[in-house]
Write a structure and sequence with these properties.
CATH architecture of one domain: 3-Layer(aba) Sandwich
Helix content: 55-70%
Shape: elongated
Strand content: 5-15%
CATH class of one domain: Alpha Beta
Order of helices and strands: EEHHHHHHHEEH
Distance between the termini: 61 Å
Radius of gyration: 29 Å
Strand order of the largest sheet: 1-2
């Protein structure tokens, strides 16, 4: 234990830097007050330092960028090497934290990267859909499909709720990403919950509990 000579409070040694007699909290406060009362002086000193050390500063940030790029490439390679385990871990976390996952997705969708990813994903989906279409999907065939399912979800057999927006999904039974066709024979009506649980998985690997 040690007593701070500024606030006269006895604190653990971890609250002090090296052999200083002022605790970390008091040092932060002193630094904050000094910066507030010496703004112009600090500004001039920093500008002078930047002018006198242009080359070293430029080299520092270049090395930092290179190091960051190397780390990002390493992270990418590492993710690809363990992609299945990473996907599984991500799915398990989302199942344990559905609200946080939903909020994270909402925040990401508002970023530039999120907007680009959504556009690219939609384009890829439409390309797969168009390239794998056999021309059998139309209003008449979809109406017949709904009658055939008796207005029930194909997966859980619950009544489909057409009164709620986006509660009913038209699902590719074998996902397009897994080689499925955009064909009436490969389409089923599904409730929102079942389709989101199924996502892009092969149906036989699912265990959807009604």
């Amino acid at each position: 234990m040690k007593t701070c000579n500024k606030c006269n409070t006895t604190k653990p040694l971890l609250e002090f830097r090296d052999n200083r007699n002022k605790c970390k909290a008091c040092e932060r406060l002193s630094s904050k007050l000094y910066k507030a009362s010496h703004q112009e002086e600090i500004k001039i000193t920093r500008a002078k330092y930047r002018e006198e050390n242009k080359e070293s500063i430029s080299k520092y940030y270049k090395d930092k960028r290179d190091s960051l790029e190397d780390k990002q490439q390493y992270d990418k390679d590492s993710y690809q090497r363990n992609i299945e385990a990473n996907k599984k871990r991500s799915r398990e976390w989302q199942q344990r934290n559905p609200e946080r996952a939903k909020e994270n997705g909402r925040l990401y969708s508002q970023t530039e990267s999120g907007k680009k990813a959504r556009i690219m994903g939609r384009q890829n989906y439409m390309n797969r859909k168009n390239n794998n279409s056999d021309g059998t999907v139309n209003k008449e065939s979809l109406a017949k499909l709904l009658l055939l399912q008796n207005n029930k979800c194909h997966h859980c057999n619950k009544d489909l709720d057409f009164s709620t927006k986006r509660a009913v999904h038209l699902d590719h039974y074998i996902p397009l990403s897994k080689g499925g066709k955009h064909s009436i024979d490969n389409l089923v009506y599904s409730c929102q919950n079942c389709n989101q649980v199924k996502h892009a998985k092969i149906p036989t690997s699912l265990l959807i509990i009604a």
